[in-house]
C-alpha cells in the first residue's frame, strides 16, 4: 500500500535530494511556489519550495527499502515515530498535486472567489494582503490593497495570488 511520507532535507538541498531519490526509483513530490526576491536593485521571480527543508516521498514501507533514504545525498532523514516512517493523512499530497500548475508552482486560483482575503505572492506588491474584488475568465484579477493609508485597486494575474 503506497502512502506519502515526509523527508527532511539539508538546507537548500531539496531539488538535489529529489533528483537522487528519483535515481533510486522513488516517487517524490516537491511543491514549489513563486517567490519575489530582490537582486541587484530589481525584483526577480524565482521558484522556491513551499515547505523549505522538506519534500514528500511515496512508498510502500513493507516492500521498499526505505532506510536507504536516510543515506541519500541531500537528505537528513525520513520523519519517523517509533522507528517507522509516519504516513501523511490521505489526500494531503494529492490535493497539493491537484493545485500544481504547468510550470510546477502551486496555484490556488480556481479555489478563490470575490471577497476572499488574498496575498500577492510576487511582483512589486509581493507579500501584500488584500481583498479580491474582481476576476475575469482570462485569469486577470483585481485586488484591493491598503497602501499608505489609502485603498488602491491593483490588477494582476490569478497565478500570482495565494489565499491569506
Folded structure, characterized:
This protein has 2 helices and 13 strands; from the N terminus they run βαβββββββαβββββ. It has 164 residues and is mostly beta strands. 10% of the residues lie in helices and 43% in strands. The chain has helices at residues 14-23, 92-98; strands at residues 3-9, 27-29, 32-39, 42-49, 54-59, 75-78, 80-81, 84-85, 117-120, 129-135, 140-147, 150-157, 161-163. The model has no long low-confidence stretch (mean pLDDT 88). The strands form 4 sheets. The chain has a 5-stranded antiparallel β-sheet with strand order 12-11-10-9-13, with no helix packed on it. It has a 4-stranded antiparallel β-sheet with strand order 2-5-1-6, covered by helices on one side. It has a two-stranded antiparallel ribbon with strand order 3-4.
Summary, kept brief:
With 164 residues, the chain is mainly beta.
- Topology, number of strands: 13
Compute the number of helices: 2
CATH fold-type name of the largest domain: Alpha-Beta Plaits
CATH superfamily of the largest domain: NusG, N-terminal domain
Count structural domains: 2
Proportion in helices: 10-25%
Strand order of the largest sheet: 12-11-10-9-13
Q: Unreliable stretches, pLDDT < 50, 5 or more residues? A: none
Strand content: 35-45%
Structural class: mainly beta
Query: Largest beta sheet, briefly?
Result: 5 strands, antiparallel
What would the principal axes of the Cα set say about the shape?
elongated
N-C termini distance? 35 Å
Q: From N to C, what is the helix and strand string?
A: EHEEEEEEEHEEEEE
